[in-house]
């Protein structure tokens, strides 16, 4: 636990390794660490790797005023820390007033120095959509879109319906349910995610992708060990549709939903840089939807004591029906 505390300090405190002179780039992941090996000879990444510590107001996309800077100055960091401290106080305030609201519902962790999770393009922004990507996005429906009426189940995205948050969205922190755990067996890595209780099965035995005609919500992943401390994963075979991806993390596009095509490809690298740290990086390319690929980086910290509980989503599977009933009633009342 002392190691975990030190790593959290590195992520959050002014004057730490993050407070480097060049604020425009993050330090490259170290290749010097050599993790222990499993009994069958693969690097041992097993354990709890929750990303709840990343839920500290770092946005997906960077504030344009920060330009190409990947790190905050000490003053900017202090300002973010002040905002986070106020958010953390909500829980105690609600307890004192005998109420229960967003302070109990939305988790927040310590601030960090990152200006955005997106690292490429250099401006930290999602690339522009292609004309076809824009057309597909405009056709999407979601409960996250303000003022949208609901008439059928197709007015809800896959996360609304508790099917999946999709990729790469599932790899970003949200306001709750940020647990992740890695399991391994010979030739296989399994990544369990608390949100929607999905498990990504990643063969590392050299087997080929499934046929291109088969599409999955989370795609089809294949991994390989690049060296003693890095796992690279390529995911293809994504299931297209008008409601496939909802990033949902701080700083996501206002409409939240981004379409996915059958041409989408995700390449991830998990670098273990110490016994309690993984630098997670990915590049997402979907030429049907985006005008160029984009990349992100997140710093994972080990916490084997993090407990993953039931993710009920919506009890009794009645909320989609309730949204539709309420929406129709509101419109009928407005018409009168």
Automatic annotation (TrEMBL):
Highest taxon of source: Bacteria
Keywords per UniProt: Signal
Region Disordered: start-end pairs: 236-257
Signal peptide region: 1-19
Name recorded for this polypeptide: Uncharacterized protein
Source species: Aurantiacibacter arachoides
């Amino acid at each position: 636990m002392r190691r975990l505390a030190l790593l959290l300090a590195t992520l959050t405190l002014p004057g730490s390794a993050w407070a480097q002179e060049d604020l425009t780039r993050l330090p490259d992941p170290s290749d010097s660490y050599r993790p222990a090996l499993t009994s069958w000879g693969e690097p041992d990444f097993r354990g709890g790797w929750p990303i709840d510590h990343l839920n500290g107001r770092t946005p997906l996309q960077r504030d344009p005023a920060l330009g190409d800077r990947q790190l905050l100055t000490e003053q900017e960091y202090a300002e973010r820390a002040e905002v986070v401290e106020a958010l953390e106080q909500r829980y105690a305030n609600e307890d004192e007033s005998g109420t229960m609201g967003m302070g109990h519902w939305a988790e927040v962790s310590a601030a960090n120095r990152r200006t955005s999770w997106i690292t490429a393009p250099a401006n930290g922004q999602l690339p522009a959509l292609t004309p076809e990507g824009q057309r597909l996005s405009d056709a999407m429906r979601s409960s996250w879109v303000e003022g949208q009426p609901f008439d059928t189940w197709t007015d809800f995205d896959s996360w609304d319906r508790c099917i999946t948050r999709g990729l790469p969205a599932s790899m970003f922190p949200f306001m709750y349910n940020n647990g992740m755990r890695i399991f391994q067996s010979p030739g296989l890595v399994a990544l369990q995610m608390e949100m929607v209780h999905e498990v990504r099965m990643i063969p590392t035995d050299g087997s080929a992708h499934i046929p291109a005609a088969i599409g999955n919500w989370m795609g089809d992943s294949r991994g390989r060990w690049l060296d003693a401390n890095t796992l690279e994963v390529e995911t293809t075979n994504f299931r297209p549709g008008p409601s496939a991806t909802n990033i949902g993390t701080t700083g996501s596009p206002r409409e939240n939903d981004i379409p996915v095509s059958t041409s989408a490809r995700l390449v991830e690298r998990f670098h273990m840089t110490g016994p309690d740290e993984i630098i997670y990086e990915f590049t997402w390319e979907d030429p049907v939807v985006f005008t160029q690929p984009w990349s992100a980086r997140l710093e994972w910290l080990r916490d084997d004591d993090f407990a993953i509980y039931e993710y009920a989503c919506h009890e009794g599977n009645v909320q989609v029906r309730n949204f539709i009933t309420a929406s129709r009633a509101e419109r009928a009342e407005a018409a009168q």
